[in-house]
Amino acid sequence: MKPCAVATALLLACLLAGPLQAATVVRYFQTDARYAYRTELLRLALDKTRATDGPYALRPCHGGGQLATARGLVLVEKGAADVFSLATTAELERRFIPVRIDIMRGILGYRIFLIHRDSVAAFKAVKSLDQLRQQFVAGFGAAWPDLAILQAGGLSVEPVDVYESLFPMLAFKRFDYFPRGINEIWDEQLTWGRRYPQLRVEESLALYYPMTVYFFVSKHNPALAKRLERGLQLVLADGSFRALFLKSHGQAIRQSRLERRRLFRLKNPTLPPGTPDPEPGWWLKQRL
């Protein structure tokens, strides 16, 4: 076939196929290592809906790793970012559209403590929630949804605006402990322990409060919310959601040895009415 005939054929094929669909850009501001699993789940849900909803481009916001949560939420409201994930609250569901599929399967509600090495014996001596309330002060993110849970449970808490500041503050005894999700603490101890070797993972205690974590999008972007819901339903159905969750968190679950810890329970007054209880059956074979 002559070159001109080939070119004509290609042009005709393109015209018959119709215009190319532009990729949907999905921007997120939670970019540090704590959110790696959530970003992969987001990508998985978008992949599963590519055939029905078209191509996408998943992009981190510039400077996202340094953004405080409160600032990131404002970016989503203003249309400068598109999606984030947090434990649901009535306030978040008022401001944003929740995608009502729990992406963390209850794991963030099981908290163990990062402490100073000088405090190991003091924490090991704790036998009741009242002792924890009366004798120790926790450090916690000022804009994190579960700050209100800790405070409502009667714990003494020092709110801190910047996540990265919590580790040196604990190392220099500005507070006594930092409650972390069992999926978070081991990487944090490894990373921050290099700089602050006095940090330790406490071995005898745990907190539990029900936490349901959703993806949220702007009120102005219901199409993205619907796409993410469809994608998450698809990855639930084909097992890839569960496989990613266990691959990402299995080692941390084993390290945490929840069955050997004294567990203190708190209520969660921030949950919107009707929020279903988390379903930890993928990873917690017997409720503690």
What name does CATH use for the topology of the largest domain? D-Maltodextrin-Binding Protein, domain 2
Element-by-element helix/strand order: HEHHEHEHEEHHEHEHEHEEEHHE
What's the CATH superfamily of the largest domain, by name? Periplasmic binding protein-like II
**Beta fraction of the residues?**
15-25%
Structural class, judged by helices and strands?
alpha/beta
Range of helix content? 25-40%
Q: Which radius of gyration do the C-alpha atoms yield?
A: 22 Å
Describe it for me?
α2 (36-48) packs across α11 (222-238) and α2 runs antiparallel to α12 (240-256). The longest helix has 17 residues, at 222-238. The chain has 2 domains: 22-105 and 211-256 and 271-282, Periplasmic binding protein-like II (D-Maltodextrin-Binding Protein, domain 2, 3-Layer(aba) Sandwich); 107-208, Periplasmic binding protein-like II (D-Maltodextrin-Binding Protein, domain 2, 3-Layer(aba) Sandwich). The chain has 12 helices and 12 strands. α8 (147-152) links the parallel β6 and β7. The strands form 4 sheets. Strands 5, 8, 9, 10 and 12 form a 5-stranded mixed β-sheet that branches. Strands 3-11-4 form a 3-stranded antiparallel β-sheet. Strands 1-2 form a two-stranded parallel sheet. The chain is α/β, with parallel strands linked by helices and 288 residues long. Mean pLDDT is 91; it is low at 6-18. Helices cover 40% and strands 20% of the residues. The radius of gyration is 22 Å and the shape is globular.
